[in-house]
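OP here, attaching both records as promised.
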Amino acid sequence: MNQPPTIAIVGIGGVFPGAEDLESFLENIMLARASAREPPAGRWLLDLADVYDPSGPQPDRIYSRRACFVDDFPLDTAGLEVDKPLRLEVRKSNAAAMGLYLGSGFRRVGEVEGYYGDGEDAVLMEK
């Protein structure tokens, strides 16, 4: 008779939306609790009303007002390597995003004609 090998779980941990510890996370699963919610005030740089469009996936838009957020979790960036300079593309018509990036220290460095599938140009930005 074949017997499966014995396994010892030494420890387990994690960070989960709507649960401050593993026990709460497992309880949420057992009780089928949903953790999705609207973003907490100040969590996103853009106002939800400026980017929400329920008609489905579109560039520079979201189609759900709800997401899962981990609260009170400090991001420790020590050890993360981020390529410098930071570069991004923004639809030429997306004034809200362009204003956000310009206000965050990005600058316009060029344009790409017809970059998006619908033929709209992209503005290249760098920080």
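Record two, same layout:
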Amino acid sequence: MLDDLARSQASDSLTIAVAAMKAFLITYKPATENPELGWPIEELRRLVKTNQAGQRAIEPWRFRNLKDVKIGDRVFLLLQGKNGPAIIGYGEIAGRPENDSGDWFVPVEFETIVDPTVQCLADRDAVRSIEGGDRFWRIMSSGVKLPDSLADELEALVVGTSPKPRNEGSTSNPD
């Protein structure tokens, strides 16, 4: 009976911990599309190779929402620009926010990240089908807290799934 009580309390604690976890959207736009604010694809590919080699792929990412973010919170990486919106990675917050010359960055450890020139985790059609997500797919900043319902849909859509080939023709009209 004592073991059952301990298991029940442990289960309740886990439920509370999962419920308290927040989710954030971080963004990636290739430097080829925005030389001032974009990030070189070579740097993203470095993270992809590190992750594929089974090593910890951690990168400080610009973050807007500093008051809500905590270590262990979920992060989804959104590809923006002409090949987006698409989800190309996910992971969790791996450290505290740090200020670098006036810009705030938060270390993100990627569980999965793919090269957006070849693959995605959720393509444009899948991302756009999520109710209430439109304003987030066009957001101009990184590190934005997601509503729980949107985070739950992204979690179900991409976590633990295999990458898909990038579908370049997803916006063409078949008629």
